[in-house]
Amino acid sequence: QGDWQSCEVIFPSKLFGSALYAVLHAPANIDLAHDKLPVVVIAPGSISGVQSQYQWSARELAANGYITLVIDPQGVGNSELVSYPQTADNYIDAVVSGLDFIESDANPLRANVDTAHMGAAGHSLSASGLSWLQAEDLRLQAIVAWDNLAENATGAAEGGQLVGGEIPSVTPLRPVRPRVPAMGQANSDGQATNPDDRKKGYELWHQAGVSSMLISFLGKGHLDWAQGQAASADSSSDKSKEMRLFEYYTRAWFDLWLKNDRSALGRLTASQVFDQTSTEIFSPTYHSALYLPALGIDCPDIASGSCTAFQH
Questions:
Q1: What is the DSSP pairing of strand 140-146 with strand 182-186?
Q2: What pLDDT is recorded for position 115?
Q3: Is 110 a residue whose pLDDT tops 50?
């Protein structure tokens, strides 16, 4: 994961006022007097998900020049439990409240934050929430949805742009309106009746003309993005290799859009990652895809071998 440093922080929930627990990460060699670094806020999956299961991404990003904040939503993990229902709002609130903290004087790294380059990643329910939030919170400039980009986010109000970190009230559905470049990472569980089954969120971005990528990983399940306590920490373990693969694509996407690092495109379209070939990475059952309209890339099925962007 490289060299990083971290500290625990607590700040108020925008929605409930309850105390939210998070861990703030930065490069080990950060220059406090001069560095201005991009930011990624990370939120967990619902039910059993907690922030500690996603530090694999927060630490690796921090070691490579990011400030990261991974958060327990209200009522989850070490965050305060109050008498409000658990809904998608809690997970959206975690990201909005985290961005508020990043921009506040309570953040010990406030002077080092590049507020023009902030993104977010989330798993499961947080991924659905981010799919919606990216259109409403204009501070976000790129997102990564771990299983997966969504067509709508359940549990809060339709339409309307957030003002000053406001969280909308609970209603059944919210349609997603693509605004920022978005990557979806998807599992390959189940038997496909439609090879584009994992692409429904991606297709919204494609139809809107907004850059997007979908990776349907071969042999991965929905819970694999959460690193459990029992997972082996050995770098040669299957779990460590899996985390590195998820993070390889996660950081490449953020590098492309938050750092304007054009070398990231080569990483996103590599025919081999670490010791795995593309046939070992992409599911042959569910389509993976890449859409970068400004670069003339529109690849509806990466695994087919027909996309010239991946033929190098």
A1: parallel
A2: 97
A3: yes
